[in-house]
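Bench log, entry 3. Co-assembly request; chain sequences pasted below exactly as received.
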Amino acid sequence: DQQVKQNSPSLSVQEGRISILNCDYTNSMFDYFLWYKKYPAEGPTFLISISSIKDKNEDGRFTVFLNKSAKHLSLHIVPSQPGDSAVYFCAASDRGSTLGRLYFGRGTQLTVWP
Amino acid sequence: DAGITQSPRHKVTETGTPVTLRCHQTENHRYMYWYRQDPGHGLRLIHYSYGVKDTDKGEVSDGYSVSRSKTEDFLLTLESATSSQTSVYFCAISSQGGYGYTFGSGTRLTVV
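Structure output for the full assembly:
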């Protein structure tokens, strides 16, 4: 049973526009959320994170929004660039757990076209 | 890259043979993980370790075993490889578990 869900397998956006990637979770114990980016033939790399005590975190062109009541988070990329084309994974964790695990969604393939 | 190395990077093996993938870290991190990535399934946890000789199963552990006899090495063994185990395997490390991982570059395994 998936605890983190990314319901859109793919997203296509024109260069310069906003990309919005969505993620839902079911476990109310999750208190930390991350986004990873993955290019072909490479390992995933950390992009941005947010703690459950916040509802927004920005890092340059990337902003993550958290809506705890809806158990939903989103990643906004503004403006989108062709180099942003990659698979984006949403992940969540319960930092109080000794298991030290992240739970991943299935990923969204973002394509940014010129 | 960030003190984590996977070997081999590519491997082709025959059905029924045992295969061992190696993950080596130089960060002295407590946690180590093995994932597989398949189209439509994202990243699925196979096994993980929260200390030397302390390991546990993930969601897709059938047909796989692991060992961690020292902090820096985490080995994943396919006891008798099957075509369904053709995949890209990623190792990850973490000092604090739920705060995020650093991933290796992956091993592409093909079972023929």
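Chain A touches chain B through 27 residues (CB under 8 Å). The longest strand of chain A covers residues 86-93.
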